[in-house]
Design brief:
CATH class: Alpha Beta
Largest sheet: 7 strands, mixed
Number of helices: 11
Radius of gyration: 22 Å
Distance between the termini: 48 Å
Order of helices and strands: HEEHHHHEEEHEEEHEHEHEHEHE
Number of domains: 1
Length: about 375
């Protein structure tokens, strides 16, 4: 009798943990109107099923309004030693010795956690000068958009580039948090919308594999920035999902080189091994200038509001990886902090994450 009672009780408890597979609702991006060059594309992301009407979402604020002071890092000579984070010099260490408790406490007390993420630069500013093809020298004063500067220019998270053809290599791995991937999709759409018809664009997402523009009906060359291709891009961005892994970066860089673009934007969190950095540095990307952009992780403990030194050191390493890649290809590194509005969008309309093999996304998992 005791055995029967215990078996029944355990069965009842087990039923509380039975997993039920839920049907995913597709993510729909509705960007019907092209925005002006100074604001992000108005992307309405909604969950739609069947013939249900899409629910309009609040568009992300213009990036220049979100992080107007985001520092830009110019190319560094190959023999220039990299400096520690300018915004956190009191915490940076050039030796293997542990932090002193007193100095750490004083440094943390001097940092305003609310402003810290937007100020993390990662690498000291270089000497600037003429960037050549794809370099996109930064204009003085506030960020200058395409309309104000003219020419074959584009911007991506505030970083200007110059060229008739532009390629966006964007990490779509599951490492994105707090709405980071929503912000990436929004900014890709805005950047392409701002291109002139005589310009062209190419997009590759990378995680477990490389996913070229319009995957699974992929193309391997840059497409003219016509209104029709811009509409097609918006529709495709609404289908993009995230996947585990990061080995797809090598195929993504190869595709960028084969596409023959003038400027390449490489966006990632920078969590690369040394061998990956070396391979991307030495990759053949033709004459393209490569600008790298780093999604900055949260380095403040949300429970205590204090900076976590280990996270700061880790972020320094990620930023140095991306700065080294940019320098090798004549470009610049730009840190990117995700706005709080994107996190709210992630909670209300999450983008699917893949951890197993799938027919369209997660091909190599």
């Amino acid at each position: 009798m005791s055995t029967i009672v215990h078996v029944v009780a355990l069965a009842g408890i087990a039923c509380m943990y039975i997993a039920v597979k839920a049907e995913r609702l597709p993510i729909v991006l509705d960007m019907s109107a092209a925005p002006g060059p100074e604001e992000l594309a108005s992307i309405d992301i909604s969950a739609a099923s069947g013939d249900a009407e899409p629910v309009a979402a609040e568009p992300l604020a213009a990036w220049d309004a979100i992080a107007p002071e985001t520092p830009i890092v110019e190319p560094l000579p190959a023999d220039t030693p990299l400096e520690p984070l300018a915004a956190i010099e009191p915490l940076a260490s050039t030796t293997d010795e542990p932090f002193a408790t007193d100095s750490l406490a004083a440094a943390v007390a001097a940092i305003d956690p609310a402003d810290m993420l937007a100020e993390v630069a990662g690498i000291a500013t270089g000497s600037g000068g003429d960037h050549g093809r794809g370099g996109g020298a930064r204009a003085g004063g506030p960020r200058a958009g395409i309309a104000s500067t003219g020419g074959d220019l584009t911007t991506f998270f505030g970083r200007e580039g110059s060229g008739r053809s532009v390629c966006f290599l964007c990490d779509n791995s599951n490492s994105h948090r707090d709405g980071g991937f929503h912000a990436v999709l929004d900014e890709v759409a805005r950047a392409v919308d701002a291109l002139r018809p005589e310009q062209s664009f190419f997009v590759v997402f990378f995680s477990d594999a490389a996913y070229p523009l319009f995957h699974p009906a992929s193309v391997d060359r840059a497409q003219p920035a016509t209104p029709e291709n811009k509409r097609r891009l918006r529709a495709w961005l609404g289908t993009v999902e995230m996947c585990s892994g990061g080995q797809g970066i090598h195929d993504a860089v190869r595709l960028a080189g084969a596409a023959g673009t003038d400027v390449v934007y490489l966006l990632s969190d920078g969590e690369f091994s040394g061998s990956v950095v070396d391979r991307v540095q030495s990759a053949d990307i033709g004459d393209a200038v490569v600008h790298t952009l780093g999604i900055q992780q949260t380095v403040v403990d949300r429970r205590t509001g204090l900076v976590v030194p280990d996270r700061l050191r880790e972020q320094e390493g990620f930023n140095r990886n991306l700065a080294a890649i940019a320098t090798a290809h004549g470009g610049t590194f730009t840190p990117v902090a995700i706005p709080p509005l994107a996190a709210a969008l992630e909670r209300s309309r999450p983008i699917p994450r893949n951890r197993s093999r799938g027919p369209v996304w997660g091909l190599k998992l």
